[in-house]
Specification:
This protein has 361 residues and is of the alpha/beta class. 47% of the residues lie in helices and 15% in strands. The chain has a seven-stranded parallel β-sheet with strand order 3-2-1-4-5-6-11, sandwiched between helices. A two-stranded parallel ribbon has the order 7-10. α5 packs parallel to α7 and α10 crosses α12. The longest helix has 24 residues. The termini are far apart. Bound molecules: nicotinamide-adenine-dinucleotide (NAD) and thymidine-5'-diphosphate (TYD).
Length: 361
């Protein structure tokens, strides 16, 4: 039994699917998952519905800041590991309202660590030795690179620039301290920008796909030359499985897609893919919808991961190129209209109005 926080979100939800598919592929027993998720705007049980319906996964709707709820879940399910995905994850939202980010990402991680440490302390023998706490974090804790800087490695100094990345940096430091001080068995992964199915359409790639199809502007921040290192979400999920199995306690592993791409090139790639798969009725290219808008405050210029350590010590490398991953992603959004309609509620429309209303074209 594994307990996974944030398992109804984008990466956690993909992880739930990946976990069972991988174990079947490798001939391993179908070890159960307990999804511990508050179901904020970003959490959607529909993402993992088949696995909830089959009983392979169980959903507990609760907040990681609620220590009593965490304690009860640990006592009831007795997991051999905790995979910690739950977070507030969107940089633009952290600029409009940082409080929730401090609460969930820092206070929530602290609550979870405290309850997990008490649970682990009470374990004995093999169960205690085998227990793992895997913390999922981001490359954004390392700050911003210039075009010529080397990619982030595990020894790059922390320099978070947004309330989001600062709150994730704080959570990383707590995890590190719990290993150093208490010998608590932690593993940390810091990954680059993920993309793929079930991605909430406030983030660049799903927002561009859905705005394009709706005939709306494609809002590119600033000059569009910011660079992200795009990682297909299932590659990330596989990395987490392998770090859980083979990682050295207390260590950090950077996970990257080896796909550094400028934002404008991401957007034009999506446009051309849609031109081929779902051409506009008027025959015009989707690129004609691209609109440059006011930049994000404090916008980090470039992120890039050096994945040497995870390749060398764990034996993981990404399987998808950006071309293959974006093809799967665009097709998924064209085919999954039910999921899309469930996440574009009134609250979603309110967010789009808040974030884009004051950006000058
Ligand atoms: P997401 O926003 O899609 O999902 C977050 C999930 O956590 C949701 O299901 C939400 O309901 C849940 N959640 C939020 N607050 C909670 C709380 N207080 N208690 C319990 N559950 C709560 O995020 P994601 O993109 O899936 O990211 C997962 C993790 O990966 C995060 O820790 C994020 O920082 C990290 N990460 C994401 C990316 C990316 O590109 N998406 C890149 C690097 C790191
Ligand atoms: P995002 O998906 O929010 O991820 P992050 O900020 O964590 O990297 O944004 C990816 C990049 O795309 C980032 O440089 C900001 C940019 N961006 C736009 O240009 N327009 C948009 O509407 C959004 C949401 C992001």
């Amino acid at each position: 039994m594994i307990l996974i926080t944030g398992g109804a979100g984008f990466i956690g939800g993909n992880f739930v699917h990946h976990w069972f598919e991988r174990r079947a592929r490798l001939g391993l027993p179908a070890e159960q998952l307990v999804v511990f998720d508050k179901l904020t705007y970003a959490g959607n049980p529909l993402t993992i519905k088949p696995l909830l319906d089959s009983g392979a996964a169980t959903l507990i709707q609760a907040d990681i800041c609620d220590r009593e709820a965490v304690r009860q879940a640990l006592e009831r399910f007795k997991p051999r590991a905790i995979l910690h995905f739950a977070a507030e994850s969107h940089v633009d939202r952290s600029i409009h309202g940082p409080g929730e980010f401090i609460q969930t990402n820092m206070v929530g991680t602290f609550s979870l660590l405290e309850e997990a440490r008490a649970y682990w302390n009470a374990l004995e023998g093999d169960a205690k030795a085998a227990f793992r706490f895997l913390h999922v974090s981001t490359d954004e804790v390392y700050g911003s690179l210039s075009d010529t800087d080397p990619a982030f490695s595990e020894t790059t100094a922390y320099a978070p620039n947004s309330p989001y990345s600062a709150s994730k940096a704080g959570s990383d430091h707590l995890v590190r301290a719990y290993h150093h001080t208490y010998g608590f068995p932690t593993l940390t992964t810091n990954c680059s920008n993920n993309y793929g199915p079930y991605h909430f359409p406030e983030k660049l790639i799903p927002l561009m796909i859905l705005n394009a199809l709706d005939g709306k502007p494609l809002p590119v921040y600033g000059d569009g030359l910011n660079i992200r290192d795009w990682l297909y979400v299932r590659d990330h999920c596989e990395a987490i499985c392998q770090v859980l199995d083979k990682g050295t306690l207390g260590e950090v592993y950077n996970v990257g897609g080896i796909n550094e791409i400028r934002n404008i090139d991401v957007v034009t790639t999506i446009c051309r893919k849609l031109d081929a798969l779902r051409p506009r009725a008027d025959g015009q290219p989707y690129e004609s919808q691209i609109t440059y808008v006011t930049d994000r405050p404090g916008h980090d210029r470039r992120y890039a991961i050096d994945p040497t350590k995870i390749q060398r010590d764990i034996g993981w490398s990404p399987a998808e190129s950006f071309e293959s991953g974006i093809d799967k992603t665009v097709r998924w959004y064209l085919d999954n209209t039910e999921w899309i309609s469930t996440v574009r509620s009134g609250a979603y429309r309110d967010w789009i109005a808040t974030n884009y209303a004051d950006r000058q074209a």
